[in-house]
Amino acid sequence: MSVVRQSVRRYITSSKVAATMPNIVKERMSAPAQPPVFSNKTFYKRALPSQCLAFDSHAGKQVFLRALQEGHMENYFSLAQQMVTQNEPAFCGIGTLCMILNSLKVDPGRLWKGSWRWYDQNMLDCCRSLKDIERDGVTLEEFSCLAECNGLQTVTKCVKDVSFEEFIKDLTICSTQEDKIMAISFSRKVLGQTGDGHFSPVGGYSETDGKVLILDVARFKYPSYWVGLELMYQSMFPLDATNGQPRGYVLLESMRHPVGVFTVGLNKYSWKNVSNHIHHGVASAKSVQDLIARLDSLNQSSIPLIQQRSNSSLSAEFQHFCNVLESTDTYKLVSQNTNSDAKYLTLAFWSIFSLPIFQKDCHPTLLNQLIPYLKEIDINEIQTQVFVLREQLESLTQCCKADKPCSASDCCKSL
Questions:
Q1: Which of 52, 92, 127, 400 is catalytic?
Q2: Which helix (H) or strand (E) holds 251?
Q3: 314 has which bridge partners?
Q4: What burial letters (b/e) apply to 244-272, b meaning 16+ CB within 10 Å?
Q5: Which of 74, 96, 237, 274 could form an SS bridge with 199, CB 3.0 to 4.6 Å?
Q6: Contact 196, 247 (CB under 8 A)
Q7: In the sheet that 248-254 helps form, which strands lie side by side, from edge to edge?
């Protein structure tokens, strides 16, 4: 019988016969697919340890009800609508920030897909490359830098500088407001979980039960859960292996102004190199034209200093902004001294040379030449855009200075 079957199979799969067969028959008659090969160790979720109370358990629902009655769940609902799963095992910080940005209704000013502007985890790379973050995640300082680069005001607190009472006070502030959210960086080991460093948003807190709600972004591993306040506080003390510092938390809220059409095209590493070149250039510059030449050489030899967030060049508002910018004396001077796009270089000029860290290196004569051009930043249409860019540059500078290995090297001594 097996010989007959083999003969039939050879006949019906021959080229002459196969040409007349429907595709579905060809697929069924083809050689059977090989079964998938799995690693010896794969996982589907983890059981929560006894220290953590599952949010969706009966007891967890009772804690939620009491926290809701206390008024300590005000930002939970906006967060729940934007709940995400981190895209990569080391993307807990990126996933947490993406969730918070969309919860706080921050317009990214750039396209996500189609014609929609929306935050996605793959857009959050202004402080470090996503490839680096995929390897070892982000530190508390890098998380804050990313947040500020994307339109959030931050207050970053390392646990070694925060008492337990202050932690409870900050929890109360965030849980009773819709427009302020806490992101927490902690060690899973202290909570009895597998793994170690992790970020997640805080969804609320129950004063009656003494528990805080962690909306875990590693949903493939653990669900959302309640954990005791004292244990949560202690979980921030173990050192982050990346920078040798304890962990902590960040209080986040939207800036009072829009993110802006333009953004800095540098991360914290390229900004270190660029800022060092600018410091050297400022020290030797004799005129404003020398400063422009220094920026122009950097702009042409590295990542663009300033770039546009989205394809908004056709909007009337954008065209009006360009008309105002091109009418300034700064733009006219830049245009005469560059082969680059003068619009972007003018914004870089204003954003960089209005920072005190560069002005202090200017010779008094040069500073007097510089000031009239910097005063044009006060023009209404220009002020917001430059403010956003300056905030990003200052965030990158602080992120570098807070990076312990970096601060110990020569690259950051001038920052």
A1: 92
A2: strand 248-254
A3: none
A4: ebbbbbbbbbbbeeebbbbbbbbbbbbbb
A5: 96
A6: no
A7: 52-54, 225-228, 211-214, 197-206, 181-187, 248-254, 152-158
What is the rounded CA–CA span in Å between residue 382 and residue 389?
A: 11
- Assess whether 240 carries a catalytic annotation: no
Question: Measuring CA to CA, which residue among 272, 290, 262 is closest to residue 353?
Answer: 290
Query: Which residue reads 């992790």 in tokens?
Result: 198
Residue-wise pLDDT tens digits, 344-385: 999 999 999 999 999 998 999 999 999 999 999 999 989 988
Q: Do 109 and 310 touch, CB atoms closer than 8 A?
A: yes
CB 143 within 8 A of CB 183: yes
DSSP tag of 191: G
pLDDT-derived band at 262, boundaries 50, 70, 90: confident
Q: Known catalytic residue: 120? A: no
pTM summary value: 0.75
Please give the CATH architecture assigned to the domain spanning 52-254.
Alpha-Beta Complex (3.90)
Amino acid sitting at position 385 = Q
16, amino acid identity: K
Q: Which of 209, 216, 240, 403 is catalytic?
A: 216
- Which of 98, 126, 127, 198 is flagged as catalytic? 198
Does the annotation mark 279 as catalytic? no
Domains of the chain, by residue range, sit at: 1-30, 52-254, 262-412
